[in-house]
């Protein structure tokens, strides 16, 4: 199995539940419940990939503070290697305050240190220790984004396979040159909305058509509607392992990515990668948050069996 390097954003989520009402300037309201936990898509991906059984190293930027310690500690407990984390003296660890109202959320993010990770800080030396590079949340990391082409080119020239989940662009500018970067990405993992925004199209078919000549393999997540695999001009679709009793969908896309990459780094056929991705995406939705259902391999297998009649 190939060893994986994850380069991505790291932050802490402060989640407030059962809130009195909406906050108003000059007033104070109460929340009944609070959870402080490791946030960020890249961390969910790395943790869950590790729980599935992969060897995973994380390279990201945190501050020299208590939130940074919480992040390092949580990743380590999940089995993710943290020796390559960069601990900035200049910047504080980022955090997101999540205000939960029933099924909807209002978030405020302070990006902090993760905004300042740049591609040159991912040195060639680390590529000698791994065989696959995964990058996520490119729009949350402007310094990394400006060097993304160089990063993927270097990884490819060191013989790595590569994947990218672009994730949402909070600025909604969707400024990423796909024509330039996709040739260096083996697996491109957008969800439907991200694909359409990035390609400025309005259907999955048009979105795929617009990049198929430069892309290698594309896997498009479409929530409960399943997912698509595009390889060498051919598109295949697989249904979701439908969960009609969703706890929440936080991290479902990251768990989908983890499932896909877990099979890919074992050289499994691509359609099996996609099917397993649908399974891990669905497993994610059976518990709240992105990592709870992926506590360990036994728990993952149990949920697969009891909720989706699937034996891993
Ligand atoms: N209700 C559901 N039942 C089963 N699987 C789901 C459900 N919702 C999401 N998933 C799985 O999670 C994956 C990612 O969800 P999606 O919302 O498309 O991505 P993202 O989290 O990036 O927005 C889907 O492709 C699917 O496999
Ligand atoms: Mg996503």
Automatic annotation (TrEMBL):
Keyword line: Kinase, Transferase
Gene3D superfamilies: 3.40.1190.20
Matching Pfam families: PfkB
The Carbohydrate kinase PfkB domain, residue ranges: 1-293
Molecular function (Gene Ontology), one example: kinase activity
Name of the molecule in the record: Carbohydrate kinase family protein
